[in-house]
Design goal:
Chain lengths: 403, 518
Amino acid sequence: MNNVLERPPHYKQPLLTTPFHDRARAASVVDQFVPWAGYTTVDVYTTVEQEYFAIRNACSVYDLTPMVKYRITGPDAENYLNRLVTRDVRRIKLGRVAYSVWCNDDGHLIDDGTIFRPSATEFLLCTAERQLDWLLDSAVGFDVSVTEITETIAALSLQGPTSCSVLKAMGATGVEKLRPFDMRRFTTADGIELTISRTGFTGDLGYELWMAPDDAIPLWDRLMRAGASRGIRPIGSQALNMARIEAGFVMPNIDFVSPESVVRIGSGRSPYELGLEWLVDLEKGHFNGRRALVAEKKRGAVRRLVGLDIEGNKPAEKSLLYADRRCRREVGAISSALWSPTCKRNIALALIDAPYFSLGAEVWAEIYLCRELQWERRVARAKVVPKPFFAPERRKVTPAWDR
Amino acid sequence: MSRRPHAIIIGGGHNGLTCAAYLARAGKRVLVLEAADRLGGAAVTRDFAPGFSVSGCAHLLHQLPRAISDELGLARHGLTFAAEKMPTILLSPEGTHISLSAAGSTGLSNADATAYRAFMTRMRRFAAHLRPMLDMAPPRLGTGAWADTSGLLRLAWQVRSLGRTDMRELLRIIGMNVYDLAEEHFDSRQLQAAVAFDAVLGTNFGPRAPGTVLTLLYRLAAENGNGATATAQPRGGMGAVSDALAAAARAAGAEIRTGVRVKHVLVRGDRAAGVVLADGTTIESASVISNADPRTTFLHLLGPQHLDTGFVRRVDHFRQRGLAAKLHLALSAPPPFRDLDAASSRGRLIIAPTLDYIESAFNASKYGAFSEAPAMEIVLPTASDPGLAPSGQHVLSAIVQYAPYTHTDGWASARPKFLDRIIDALESYAPGLRSKIVAAELLAPPDIETEFGISGGHWHHGELAFDQFFMVRPVPGATQYESPVADFFLCGAGAHPGGGVMGVAGRNAARQVLKKAA
């Protein structure tokens, strides 16, 4: 299945299709697909609003297959990963998953992702971007093998308040006992084996389902049947993006760029700057970027990614931020913005210079609106507020909701 | 050593010993740990056949600064010379050799003799202005620190102070290839080749490679300050230099142990805290200094687990494969070089008849083959120092170019064939040489790697090229003799200003260590 030669040449099929493609194609009403990591994936099936509310009020299915997956095995696998990422990998127990980030020598974020520990000597690293070169260069001096296995695993993200009950209806007995970041093997009522982890990118109750590509279509069908009475709905990337902003999650190439792919000095961002210091364990021993991060911590932050609550209801996408209403002193910029339908707030993630990033600080967002080609400029008051914007209790309650 | 040493130096090569001597003279407790049973690294004298000994790697001393030999009192510690101010003899198969020396040249046309004198005067002037670069820890870019800015200004001033004409000429030629430069200046093809040969000796370059004028200038800058001896042959071989350095270090209070292999550096709290030996013993110290090459130092002694991926990637990509072989012949009689007088036979003999001869020799190496007609620097050590062989018998030592680190057939089968080719080449200059050979030894780069513990077998511990030179040597993040790990330093040829038996890396490193400790 991993044989590249069996495929049409890349110039005839520049984008691959995932094992769920036939079902996604059939469910797509508006035929809106986007490329993602070399695959064609659904941006919107019906309408963004409809899909968004499936996440928050019922249950959503998102094709996660293009997420890049690496298998890391060997006697040094744990030491290798511990040197690679900012968290202490030794503390990830068997059957657990951890969210982490990894940095280059300058302590700038290369990517974020999840680390799965299915067995003592094996890890799976699930990332947004391809980075085999960095992972292999990091393997110099370690007895590990790093293999990309993206195509050998099909994956779906099942997110929303009814996700647990859908899985139970499908035969995943005991799935409600999974705590956040737990993972386990399950067998469905009709014998499909899959791994379910209680993880996701929505900040809600939800699961990610990992299976063999051959089981993809049967599982999709099984899931849709089980979820029919529980409001299940396939969703595209746009709806997911709304949910992740509400959850306060950063997105590569939107809220930060990999320093391995930029040309401008100073484009890199550290975990401290992105508000991810809780992922950085300076005491665990050496890891990539540690010395730079120690120095940065000592110097103090010069900028920081924070949540903003902005006056009005016009999303402040890519707005510049100012210290004053007259927009004379620029202090930052917004990277992700949204009118949050659930919070009923105009929210954003923004990178703001010191000292304007402290909680409660006020800055001004310059918003441009285009109305029938008439440009209008609004300057709206924005207040630094805590993240996440939306964090329902159900996201972490165990046993999970199964209504 | 009863108390914890201030510094442990891993490796007792000439730079390690120099560093030890300077640190000990500054009152530091120094412990040198050498894995081999003899000191000196690539500056050693050793047996290669019963009764015959030879300088095992480097075989001439031409870059040891007067300042170091005076400061450390090497003469007092037993360093004497069997030959000094050795002329360079450009061998010709017909016996019409050309001799080049500080005193002048013989065998050249008047025009070439004049051109050569003018050329060398100008190149030596450039070298003299570049020399201060060698004796300093190179400034760092982008730090904004005054020490770095002033270092850069000094460098700029050294170049500017050449005056407008010479500065322009230096900037014109510094990125050039030596092939073009030699053709610009001389008519004699042998002289052109000799100039080019010095530029590519010990490098991975042919004469047409850009950057070979830089290597020539580097060689001349390194020779600047070598005092009265110029190119010299230490009595007792190159090991005598190491012995004198070791004696100087011991006299200053350093402790030196041989046959002690360091397994890895002990890192505690992100600082070097000592070493762990192969037998499991731990020796703690306030700092650790590595005389080993960058790859060995960072990837094996320190270990990638203490380093960042980007840094490891740079070390991994550091070009440090040697392209020169070393030949040792034990001879039953003086080598029969045609028409070579006694004075010339005590010189430095070059086989490199034309620029294209060297370039063709280089071409083979690009494709994993040795040179069918190799270029050579030959020394007959016993001509000046008969004690290296049984009475009446002789030793020939030669650096032979080019020999790729990886031979497509493997060196086990290539080595005897290459030896045969080399002896063929020598035969055309010294007919009957083959019949005088009692024993022969040929060290290809992998042999040099194994014997001297230099990863890649490059005698500079890494190519001297623009991208591995001066302020980026060996790699960004490990400049100024420091490393990403605190209290862990470099003092070997992999650091600025590189190899050649010079000791400057060792001395510069000692200064930097003292500055950090202050």
